[in-house]
């Protein structure tokens, strides 16, 4: 039986960030990833936005870790030459009736610690986004974009350099609690880990069940994208968002200029029953067109084409308007640490989540009681 300090189940951006942190603290660490490559699910199927923490309730984990994570990820990208930009973001009130809503977002964001927000008039945002129409906007200058695949590659390289063991194509078949740790079973080997971190993304609930941990549900929420064809990318210089629908799941279909110069529209947000269905019943391109034209009237239907999809792991059912991260030790198995429900802003917050997860692992090793 192999023995290790920390076994991390899931090799997405959060699992990698956690591994880098635990290895940096001197803990022998391995990652068990069921896919053949790391970061192949939500970590690289998203908008690549570095968020500023505008939308989350003060004192929520999302608010705290987004703000910490934003500072960390900008510094990390600069240090490791990861392609990223900080073009800023506008949330545009396309109707006068929406101005109180962007004022409310500004107030909430400032309460959560996003202190650089500003309500601006049409002349301000037209200087930066000359094709965007509206009455006013909320300006977030610290919002940025990152090449998420380059981030995964950099985290992987640093993890390997820190002697993190990568076990790819490795599925957890179950586990048993032992006095010295948790015995993990895979098709090829058995691993005794002093602590296990559940960074299983869409399958975090399955991982917990297989190890005898707490019962919870991960709800798959599919997001779909469209893209502007190459000649139309000139219509957007940075990030342009609508005022979010208060009854909606996401932030509304927004336009995001990527680090490689293309422009994506999306994502949509729809609960579904399966965790691997990316393509059935795709949203009509007309939905994206109408959303884009409301912000950029010059866009024509022929300027759009269907883009990719991603499935986020949400830990709350459809009737819940807000769903926070779940980052805590399991009440049944104190050696098990859950990083569950890591949807947006998980990419932004990944390094902060890794720091928090490593703190919880230290509590396991210090035998601190659960709260």
The class by helix and strand makeup works out as alpha+beta
Q: What is the C-level CATH assignment of the largest domain? A: Alpha Beta
What's the helix count? 8
Calculate Rg over CA atoms: 21 Å
Distance between the termini: 32 Å
Per the CATH scheme, the topology name of the largest domain is: FAD/NAD(P)-binding domain
User: What is the arithmetic mean of pLDDT?
Assistant: 95
SSE blueprint and pairings:
Layout: E1 2-9, H1 13-24, E2 29-32, E3 49-50, H2 61-80, E4 84-85, E5 89-93, H3 99-112, E6 118-121, H4 122-128, E7 136-140, E8 144-146, H5 148-161, E9 165-167, E10 174-178, E11 181-185, E12 190-198, H6 204-211, E13 219-228, E14 239-242, E15 254-257, E16 263-266, E17 270-271, H7 285-295, E18 304-314, E19 326-329, E20 336-340, H8 346-365
Parallel strand pairs: 1-2, 1-12, 2-9, 5-14, 12-20
Antiparallel strand pairs: 3-8, 4-8, 5-7, 6-7, 10-11, 11-12, 13-16, 13-17, 13-18, 14-15, 15-16, 19-20
Describe the structure.
- By secondary structure, this protein is α+β, with helices and mostly antiparallel strands.
- The strands form three sheets. Strands 5, 6, 7, 13, 14, 15, 16, 17 and 18 form a nine-stranded mixed β-sheet that branches.
- It has two domains: about 1-45 and about 150-220 and about 320-365, FAD/NAD(P)-binding domain (3-Layer(bba) Sandwich); about 90-140 and about 220-315, D-Amino Acid Oxidase, subunit A, domain 2 (D-Amino Acid Oxidase, Chain A, domain 2, 2-Layer Sandwich).
- α1 (about 15-25) crosses α8 (about 345-365) and α2 (about 60-80) crosses α8 (about 345-365).
- Helix content is about 30%, strand content about 25%.
- The protein contains eight helices and 20 strands.
């Amino acid at each position: 039986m192999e023995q290790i300090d920390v076994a991390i189940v899931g090799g997405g951006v959060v699992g990698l960030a956690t591994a880098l942190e635990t290895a940096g603290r001197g803990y022998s660490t391995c990652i068990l990833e069921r896919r053949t490559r790391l970061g192949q699910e939500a970590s690289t199927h998203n908008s690549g936005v570095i968020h500023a923490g505008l939308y989350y309730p003060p004192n929520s984990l999302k608010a705290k870790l987004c703000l910490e994570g934003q500072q960390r990820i900008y510094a990390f990208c600069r240090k490791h030459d990861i392609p990223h930009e900080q073009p800023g973001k506008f949330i545009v009130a396309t109707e006068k009736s929406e101005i109180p809503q962007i004022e409310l977002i500004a107030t909430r964001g400032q309460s959560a610690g996003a202190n650089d927000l500003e309500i601006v008039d049409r002349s301000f945002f037209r200087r930066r986004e000359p094709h965007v129409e509206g009455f006013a906007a909320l300006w977030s200058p610290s919002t940025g974009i990152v090449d998420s695949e380059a981030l995964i590659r950099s985290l992987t390289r640093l993890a390997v350099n820190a002697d993190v063991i990568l076990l790819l194509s490795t599925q957890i078949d179950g586990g048993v609690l032992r006095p010295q740790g948790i015995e993990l079973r895979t098709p090829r080997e058995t691993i005794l880990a002093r602590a296990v971190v559940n960074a299983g993304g869409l399958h975090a609930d399955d991982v917990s069940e297989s190890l005898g941990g707490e019962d919870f549900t991960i709800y798959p929420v599919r997001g779909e994208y469209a893209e502007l064809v190459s000649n139309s990318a000139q219509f957007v210089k940075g990030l342009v968002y609508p005022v979010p629908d208060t009854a909606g799941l996401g932030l509304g279909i927004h336009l995001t200029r990527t680090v490689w110069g293309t422009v994506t529209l999306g994502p949509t947000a729809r609960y579904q029953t399966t965790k691997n269905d990316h393509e059935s019943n795709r949203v009509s391109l007309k939905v994206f067109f109408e959303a884009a034209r409301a912000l950029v009237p010059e866009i024509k239907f022929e300027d759009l084409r269907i883009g990719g999809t991603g499935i986020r792991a949400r830990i709350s059912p459809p009737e819940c308007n807000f769903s926070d991260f779940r980052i805590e030790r399991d009440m049944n198995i104190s050696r098990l640490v859950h990083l569950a429900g890591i949807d947006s802003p998980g990419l932004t917050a990944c390094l902060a989540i890794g720091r928090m997860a490593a703190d919880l692992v230290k509590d396991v090793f210090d035998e601190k009681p659960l709260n």
